[in-house]
Design goal:
This protein is an all-alpha fold. It is built from 19 helices and 2 strands. The protein has a two-stranded antiparallel ribbon. The N and C termini lie far apart (63 Å).
Length: 391
């Protein structure tokens, strides 16, 4: 393979060969014109042309969606040659430019994918670009493997903030699209990095929160609970009431997913009490209506598990109304769909499958195709309702 790579290199022009060598640094799982342009410090159109030249001689493999991949042995050979040809300093600069390019892609994409959430607030220099991203989830999904790699590379280059922000960007992807297995390595590395470097407490809390969520979604309950409790501790140390309440809420969700309904309800009540400690003019006060609507939804889910179906239905109907925009808040299709799903489950438990099926249809119409886990869950719920009452 190394001999084949060497022969392919001889057939390539010097500009394309330089681009391939510099792009091979960092060990990126896949390469786009954006990444290659950053590595070689050239325009994207130039990078795209040179990448195609490398494909023609067999130095690169073409992937779908205008992406490319080096075979591992060829990539190592190109990276070694780059260091010998250009020196450590210029090679480090090339990797730094790729890290900057990834930040410039994924932070605006994260904000664009979930603009209503404080968890996707990004540094000021990336905020304006979010308005130009048509599909943030698609951008994050395309780059998730590179982001996971970049967390480690940034840490190795002494760029701790970069490593942590890259992992933070993945929140919408794990929340809305269910890419838990792909996201988990980046979150584990970033949470560890935050602890080892004694990162700012709110950043550490956010990463442990994301890690706990991902571990919970993959069924790793004990680890998820430890990460969520760490998030609570960090948020309390930072005096961040909004974050503390959200982390306590996550503990409730972990209990709920483990069928511990009464404990979950108690956690949700605790989280609501923390939210209500946020006073006028304090940080997070503008988020309160949305946060309390989410808590009401989760309380409705816990009440269903406790067989308090009338109370559950009332809570869930209020959550649906909020996320549908009927109370004056901006509508949120995703959360409306989730609340409708929960309401359909309660209606099914109560024996009202006709109304439950109508709520399922409403939820399906609100979810994008990227929300594959949630759409699959709705399909299963539809089958249950079509079979008849749960009791």
């Amino acid at each position: 393979m190394r001999a084949a790579g060497h022969l392919a290199s001889l057939r390539l022009g010097p500009e394309a060969l330089r681009l391939c060598r510099l792009t091979a640094l960092g060990g990126w799982p896949s390469v786009s014109a954006t990444i290659a342009a950053a590595a070689a410090d050239v325009h994207e159109a130039t990078a795209a042309r040179l990448l195609d030249e490398a494909v023609d001689v067999g130095l690169l493999d073409a992937l779908p969606d205008l992406r490319y991949r080096f075979r591992p042995e060829i990539r190592r050979q190109l990276a070694e040659t780059a260091t010998a040809e250009y020196g450590v300093g210029k090679c480090a600069d090339a990797v730094d430019r790729v890290l900057d390019a990834l930040l410039a892609q994924v932070l605006p994409a994260s904000r664009a994918a979930l603009p209503e959430s404080w968890r996707t607030e990004v540094p000021g220099e990336y905020r304006t670009a979010a308005a130009t991203v048509p599909d943030g989830i698609a951008v994050l999904a395309a780059e998730v493997a590179n982001v996971a790699r970049a967390v480690l590379v940034a840490e190795e280059h002494g760029r701790t903030d970069t490593a942590l922000w890259l992992a933070r960007s993945l929140w919408p992807l794990q929340l809305k699209a269910g890419h838990w297995d792909e996201v988990l390595p980046a979150l584990r590395d970033a949470a560890r990095c935050a602890e080892e470097t004694r990162a700012e407490e709110r950043m550490a809390a956010a990463l442990h929160f994301q890690l706990a969520h991902c571990l919970g979604e993959t069924g790793q309950w004990e680890r998820a609970n430890r990460a969520a409790r760490a998030a609570v501790t960090y948020e309390r140390a930072a005096g961040h009431l909004r974050g503390e309440a959200s982390a306590v809420e996550l503990l409730g969700l972990l209990s709920l997913n483990h069928w511990e309904h009464e404990e979950a309800y108690e956690r949700f009540a605790e989280a609501e009490a923390v939210y209500r400690r946020i006073g006028p003019g304090e940080e997070g006060v503008t988020d309160l209506p949305r946060a309390l609507a989410l808590i009401e939804r989760h309380q409705g889910r816990a009440l269903r598990g406790m067989d308090r179906l009338d109370e559950s239905r009332r809570h869930l109907n209020r959550a649906v109304d909020f996320f549908a925009g009927r109370t004056g808040a901006p509508p949120e299709a995703y959360n409306q769909a989730r609340a409708l799903t929960d309401l359909a489950e309660t209606l099914h438990d109560a024996g009202d499958d006709t109304t439950a099926l109508a709520r399922i249809a409403e939820a399906e119409a609100l979810l994008p195709s990227s929300a594959a886990p949630h759409r699959a869950y709705l399909a299963g719920l539809r089958r249950r309702c079509e079979r008849g009452p749960a009791r």
